[in-house]
Amino acid sequence: MAMKKAELEAHRDAYHKLMSDAQSALRQGLYREALRRAVDSWPYIDGMMQYERRWEEREFKSVEAIDMVLNVAPLLFDFETLNKMEALFAEYRRIDKFASDDLADRLAQARAFMWDAHRMWHHLEQHPHVRQDELRQQLGGDQARWRSIAESWEHMGLVFRERDGASYRVLIATRLGQVVSAKCFACGAIAEAPKAMFLEQIHCSECGRTTWHTIITGNSPSTGGDKQ
User: Fold this and answer.
1) 75-120 confidence digits (pLDDT tens)
2) Is the model's pLDDT at 55 over the cut of 80?
3) From the CA atom positions of the chain, what is the Rg in Å?
4) How far apart are CA 166 and CA 168, in angstroms?
5) Which residues contact 80 (CB under 8 A, 6 or more apart)?
6) SS3 letters for 2-65?
7) CA–CA separation, 91 vs 105, rounded Å?
8) How does 85-95 read in b/e, with b if 16+ C-beta sit within 10 Å?
9) CA distance linking residue 94 with residue 49, whole number of Å
10) pLDDT tens for residues 160-193?
11) Of 51, 132, 153, 206, which is the most exposed, with the fewest CB atoms less than 10 Å away?
């Protein structure tokens, strides 16, 4: 049954509220929470697009909730969320139809990117301190792709890149037993605990809420002008 204007508007509002939460989590470095909020917004995308096309005369190149998942999920090897996206496109065919981008093709590209990222992670596990400018020689493919993955993981706190001449050496940063500092998403209080504890929501001793904590990473090496 077709939804009325008020129902479509409610879907529009619910979508934008969830995506505001997702963007806030992303800025805090809470990548899995950001993905969860983005996925929670998916049932409202169809209604949001119908409303904004009809009453706001908006055209869509893509959809923010789709873009966020396609950008972040492959770097976290979150194949389940990508599978959910395929099911979303099958259920709500208008989403891909209304967007000028070929979202199904972008999903296929994201899956290929995820498997490249998985190959690179396995390589880093087997070869600690690998030189970034040697990744194409060791893994094949496009050097720019490997560099992009390394830079994204560094930004997410998953790897360190140490300057080595004209390039970097890349090493995995996720020693789960390492004691680290993290900031409560709700109140901003700083806590210290083994890194593994902050991979899920935990109780904050300051505000009493059970919520996500953002791991505070050290200063990243300068990336000025690096192309290797």
Assistant:
1) 999 999 999 999 999 999 999 898 988 999 999 999 999 999 999 9
2) yes
3) 20
4) 7
5) none
6) CCCHHHHHHHHHHHHHHHHHHHHHHHCCCHHHHHHHHHHHHHHHHHHHHHHHHHCCCCECCCHH
7) 17
8) beebbeebeeb
9) 9
10) 899 999 999 999 886 655 677 888 888 989 988 8
11) 206
Three-state secondary-structure class, residue 180: strand
- Residue extents of the structural domains in the chain: 5-112, 127-172, 179-215
Q: Which helix (H) or strand (E) holds 227?
A: none
Q: Which residues of 115-127 are buried (b: 16+ CB within 10 A; e: fewer)?
A: ebbeebbeebeee
- Rounded to 5 degrees, φ, ψ at 190 are -95, 130
Mean pLDDT of 39-64: 95
By the 8 A CB rule, do 154 and 168 touch?
A: no
CATH architecture of 127-172: Orthogonal Bundle (1.10)
Collapsing DSSP to helix, strand or coil, 141 comes out as: coil
Structure tokens at 1: 């049954």
For 82, other C-beta atoms within 10 Å of its C-beta total 18
pTM of this structure: 0.76
The rounded distance, in Å, linking the Cα atoms of 41 and 56 is: 20
